[in-house]
Design a protein that fits this description.
- This protein has about 190 residues and is of the alpha/beta class.
- It is built from four helices and eleven strands.
- Helix 2 links the parallel strand 4 and strand 5.
- The chain is globular, with a radius of gyration of 16 Å.
Length: about 190
């Protein structure tokens, strides 16, 4: 097993390297189930966050992060774009997304009631890791369809080329790795 050591929000972790193909590996950042990491990252993101009305994220790994951000900030509600249509959803919006960490195309759904809640509001989009930016793009499409104003896009880590983006705020850079597990250059 190969690992990459990182410190984020004052918390050290060893991230397991996972092959995407024979020439490329990514480091698995598992915030899901890690209370210390979640609490510390939520606090660090909130320090940098613009004023917002609602947090918006995609199911599933970033849900605890957004939950903790909402708790620390005293927010009564946050919005999760679900990966499947649920029975409670009336006329949901559906946006397609292809993530680097998921084999097949996905769809994100937000219920009409939550779309109405977002209308005219300031939305802060939050994710655990931004890599290709496709999940962010899908969440931006949802916010636009709701008539909301995206005031910021944040993540714990920016992976690979995402680290050079100027439209996102993140806590730390995360390189991609070659097939031998050596970090590839990321600015």
């Amino acid at each position: 097993m190969r690992y990459y050591d990182i410190e984020v929000a004052g918390t050290k972790r060893a991230l397991k390297l996972c092959p995407i193909n024979q020439d490329l590996c990514i480091a698995a950042f598992l915030i899901l189930g890690d209370t210390e990491l979640t609490v510390n990252c939520a606090a660090a993101l909130l320090e940098r966050a613009p004023k917002y009305d609602f947090l918006l994220t995609a199911e599933a790994k970033s849900i605890p992060l957004v939950q903790e951000m909402a708790r620390q900030n005293g927010d009564a509600h946050y919005i999760v774009a679900r990966k499947g249509r649920k029975l409670y959803m009336d006329n949901p919006i559906c946006v397609g997304v292809k993530s680097i960490t998921t084999e097949k195309d996905q769809k994100l759904y937000v219920d009409q009631e939550e779309m109405e809640q977002m209308r005219g509001k300031r939305i802060l989009i939050v994710d655990d890791v931004i890599s290709t930016g496709r999940s962010l793009q899908a969440l931006e499409e949802i916010a636009a369809a709701a008539g909301a104003d995206v005031v910021g896009k944040m993540a714990v880590l920016a992976e690979g080329d995402a680290a050079s983006r100027t439209d996102i705020s993140y806590l730390e850079k995360l390189p991609l790795f070659n097939g031998k597990g050596e970090p590839l250059h990321c600015d």
